[in-house]
Amino acid sequence: MFESLQARPTDAIMALMQLAKADNSPKKIDLGVGVYKTDDGATPIMEAVKLATELNYKEEITKSYVSTIGNAAFRETMLELIFGADYTPLKEGRIASAQATGGSGALRLGAELIWSAGDQASVWVPTPTWANHSPLIGSVGPEIKQYPYYNKTTLGVDFDDMLACLEQEAKRGDVVVIHGCCHNPTGADLSKEEWDRLAPFLRDHGLVPFVDLAYFGLGHGLEADTYGLRLVGTTCPETIMAASCSKNFALYKERVGLVAAITNSKEQAELVQGQFGALQRRLTSMPPDHGAALVAKILGDEKLRKVWSDELDTMRGRMQALRQQLSDALRVQGAENIADAVINQNGMFSMLPLSVEQVTKLREDHSIYMMPSGRMNIAGANGENIPHLATAILDVL
Ligand code: LMR
Fold first, then answer.
1. Which domain CATH number covers 359?
2. Distance CA 237, CA 377 (A)
3. Is 175 in the same domain as 249?
4. Is 39 a catalytic residue?
């Protein structure tokens, strides 16, 4: 049986992570995988998570199964965090949700839901998008199509091209994956005005938004980062959302995520929730509880929540400060357009206008690690190595 298997290419992000780990050069700058880092390159456990772990250790009395849709307190507190307690679909009981195995598990459940509906919807993803979007969603069944998004010359969003493509080529009932904030891999987000145009556009063309909220809280803050999602959720009749706690709670390996669907009615939400449970049951039976229990503890406790949101503010502030420093260093050296892009983009990532060869040269000559696409994770830099980073970028350019 096994001899008929073909070798599969290693995932580019995971491969880069291993390559950077193996480099012991003191001048190494690892701007690869999308994890937050401190100045010394560590990815620590957040203080709020540590406190919640202590509480959980004392209070947890069983490891028995929870449910196919996961921890109820986690779902409730996360929905309130993402949408706000006053959000009309939430108050009306029109949002179905399930805890998922990370943001990826949430995307998978969303894709399974789309495919289960049987409408043969195609799923549109931006160009470029997170490298795992197409395999993760496409392997469920829907055809993956691409809409224009990032312009590697202007280093901004081609919003009119995006709308024109969807207008001409997408059919009613198709699903459009949109990064809610902190676009991965480019850091180029839709502006508030663009979301204001996009939401009625999607509604009028019968397109279903599928918002990927992997990095919320790390762009402009919790409220601003969920603006687009909230808007499409009240403008379009149906919306799907996949959120992750990997980045904003630094719970990466615990695999904590939430899938949600905003529906037309309470009855429909119950139906979709049942679907989520059944879909998860046949995939992995149920999601792991530990990380979700910690998130529920943090969000459900005023003091812990404050500790967490302060830490989140610090992480976001550090990345914004690094963006400013890199932008200044690039501007001084004459790279105005990249300097502008770095400061205008959000979250962990920016996509620099570098070729694969230039990225390889950065790695080989300077021990600087970034994705072959030119995606860099700004959190991997620090105040000390920014001048070296700026000089090296300009050197390979
Ligand atoms: C990334 O894009 O680097 C992260 O989301 C990690 C991953 O799983 O790809």
1. 3.90.1150.10
2. 35
3. yes
4. no
Mean pLDDT of the chain: 97
In a domain, 357, yes or no: yes
Q: What share of the chain is helix, strand, coil (3-state, %, to 5)?
A: 50, 15, 35
Give the chain's domain count: 2
Catalytic residue status for 130: yes
384 contact partners, CB below 8 Å, separation of at least 6: 39
Active-site residue, from 189, 225, 247, 289: 247
What confidence tier does 70 reach under pLDDT thresholds 50, 70, 90? very high
Place of tokens 């929730």: 273
pLDDT band at 273 (very low <50, low <70, confident <90, very high): very high
Q: What's the pLDDT tens digit per position in 198-252?
A: 999 999 999 999 999 999 999 999 999 999 999 999 999 999 999 999 999 999 9
Q: How far apart are CA 203 and CA 192, in angstroms?
A: 17
Sign (positive or negative) of CA dihedral 92, 296, 99, 312? positive
- Looking at the whole model, is its pTM more than 0.90? yes
Q: Is the CB of 327 under 6 A from ligand 1?
A: no
Strands, E assignment, the chain: 29-30, 95-101, 123-127, 144-148, 150-151, 156-157, 175-179, 208-213, 239-244, 256-262, 349-351, 368-369, 375-377
The reported pLDDT for the residue numbered 344 is 96
Whether 121 maps to a domain, the answer reads: yes
Q: Determine contact, residues 98/270, Cβ cutoff 8 Å.
A: no
Sequence letter at residue 244: S
Contact 67, 286 (CB under 8 A): yes
Cα(25) to ligand 1 centroid in Å equals 24
3-state secondary structure of 132: coil
pLDDT in tens, 112-165: 999 999 889 999 999 999 999 999 999 999 999 999 999 989 999 999 999 999
Confidence of residue 284 (pLDDT cuts 50, 70, 90): very high
Q: Answer yes or no: is the C-beta of 13 below 6 A from any ligand 1 atom.
A: yes
